Structure formats: C-alpha cells, structure tokens
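Retro notes (design track)

What went well: tokenization of the new backbones is finally stable.
What didn't: we kept losing track of which sequence belonged to which structure.
Fix going forward: every design gets posted as structure first, then sequence, in one message. First example under the new rule, 300 residues:
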C-alpha cells in the first residue's frame, strides 16, 4: 500500500504549502481591510510583498496566521506527538509576547485557557471566524494521510478558540483538501470534494462568487475556492485572492497553503520567497521536514 506515496513529492508539496501559507499572509497583510476597488485604485493589481498595511509591517513580516500555525508545529515537535495542552501553552506564550495582531475569538479562547485551563471553548453560533482554519496546516501535515487523525487534530486545535459547526466543517474540508493535494490529487478531484461540502453546508456555495472576503469563515473559504479553482498557477491563485482585500492576509494564507500543496515548490515565485522573513522561512523548512517525518506517511 505504501508504494502509492511518493515521499519526495510529498515533502516538496508540504514545504511549498507551509511557505505558501507564510507568503499569502505576508502578501495579503498589506491590503488587509481594504476593499477590492481601493486596492485597484492604489496599486492597479497588487502583486508584491512590501509590508506596511494597517499593521505597519516590515516587508516579509508575517502575522498571527503564520505565528499560530508555528505554535502548533512547535508543540508537536517538542512533545514528539500530538499534545493539545502543548498547543494551548504555545498559544498562551504567544499571546503574552504581544503579537502584532490577534483576533478577538482567538484572544478570548486563549485567555480562558490561561485563566481556567479550558481547552475547549463552549459551542457558540457566532464564533464562525476563520481563526481556526488559518492555522491548521501543521495538524494536516502531522496526520498525513490518516483521515481520522486529521479530524481529531484539526478539530481539537480549533476548539481551543472556535467551537462552531460551520468553522468545523471548513476546517475538516480544508484539511482534507490539503491531504489530497499533498498526495498529488488533480484539481477536478479537489473541486468534487468541495462540492461535497457545499451539498452538506450550502452556505459555502461559491458559484457565482459574491466577492466577499471577510473574516467570516464562509466568506473566507468562498474566496479561496473561487480563486484557487480559477487560477492557473500558484501566483495567479494568490494574486486573485489578496486583491479581493478584506481579510486578505488570512484568505492569502489559506489559499497559499492549498495552492502550495497543489503546485509544489517549483511554482513558488522566487521574488516572494526572497522577501519572506528569513527566520520564519528557516523555521518552516525544518518544521515541515520534522512533521512529515513523524507523520504516518513518514513512518510507513
Ligand atoms: Mn493575520
Ligand atoms: Mn487576517
């Protein structure tokens, strides 16, 4: 059975997914909270990592999306396995380090862990932001290709801050798309998988695309689906996504992980990799190797 997995190919795609996520975050952050027409009148088409934005970032600096993903990856490596407390501890240390940005729902959940040791937020119909989906990539890498482990890790990390059926559905679907893309699935297969999500949760229907790219996980995923399935390259997918504006660092991060997994390392524009924070890039390279080596596919 294991002969069907090409581990060199999977490692390349995993690395591209993680770097792609950071690229999308660093690229999109410049235009976060702008409208598509504001971006168009200021930049024409926005296409370079230049920093700035409402967070006044350095070029190549990443935000909470990448930082929280790194928290999850570090916890897995440090504990040599899945440790929800380890993840929550890293989120807590990160929040105390006064990060450049942190969403309200994430902050609320991490505070509840700090104050009460709470690892699972109570179910909340309003906590349908994209904060759980944006950071799940290390859980997807470490569970590859086991679907039950994927669901366990993805949902446990999500519920530290976001306990909501729509967020859960988005997280599981995104994790499964990542697993499929990392193993070399075609886009038609990925599209079919999203159709399954839309059948169960019609709210995720993205055709016709409404153009909303807010932090509501439904708007976020519709934007990612629209531009990922329409784009012909990693670069096209990312540029389409972030030029939608709104929560552009997070739509960028999610589209970046998916497009990175799908197109692989060769497709990542060199000009974007060069601009990325070099410490973040170095940590991602090492972390990805370790997560894949420790995953079921790495141990086969
Ligand atoms: Mn962010
Ligand atoms: Mn964001």
């Amino acid at each position: 059975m294991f002969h069907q997995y090409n581990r060199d190919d999977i490692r390349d795609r995993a690395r591209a997914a993680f770097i792609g996520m950071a690229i999308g975050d660093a690229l999109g952050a410049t235009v976060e909270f702008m409208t598509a027409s504001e971006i168009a009148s200021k930049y024409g088409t926005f296409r370079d990592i230049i920093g700035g934005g409402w967070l006044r970032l350095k070029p190549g600096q990443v935000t909470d999306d990448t930082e929280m993903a790194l928290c999850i990856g570090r916890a897995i490596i440090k504990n040599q396995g899945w440790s929800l407390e380890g993840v929550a501890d890293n989120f807590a240390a990160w929040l105390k380090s006064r990060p450049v940005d942190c969403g309200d729902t994430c902050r609320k959940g991490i505070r509840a862990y700090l104050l009460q040791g709470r690892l699972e937020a109570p179910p909340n119909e309003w906590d349908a932001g994209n904060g759980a989906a944006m950071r799940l990539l290390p859980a997807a890498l470490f569970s590859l290709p086991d679907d039950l482990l994927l669901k366990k890790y993805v949902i446990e990390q999500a519920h530290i801050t976001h306990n909501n059926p729509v967020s859960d559905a988005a997280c599981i679907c995104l994790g499964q798309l990542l697993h499929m893309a990392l193993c070399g699935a075609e886009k038609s297969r990925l599209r079919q998988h999203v159709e399954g999500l839309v059948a169960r949760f019609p709210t995720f229907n993205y055709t016709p695309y409404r153009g909303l790219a807010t932090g509501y996980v439904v708007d976020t995923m519709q934007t990612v689906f629209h531009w990922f399935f329409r784009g012909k390259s990693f670069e096209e997918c990312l540029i389409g996504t972030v030029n939608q504006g709104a929560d552009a660092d997070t739509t960028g991060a999610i589209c970046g992980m998916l497009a990175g997994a799908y197109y692989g390392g060769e497709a990542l524009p060199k000009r974007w990799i060069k601009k990325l924070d070099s410490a973040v890039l170095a940590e991602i390279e090492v972390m990805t190797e370790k997560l894949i080596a420790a995953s079921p596919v790495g141990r086969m």
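Added context from the reviewer: Residues 25 and 250 are 6 Å apart (CA to CA).
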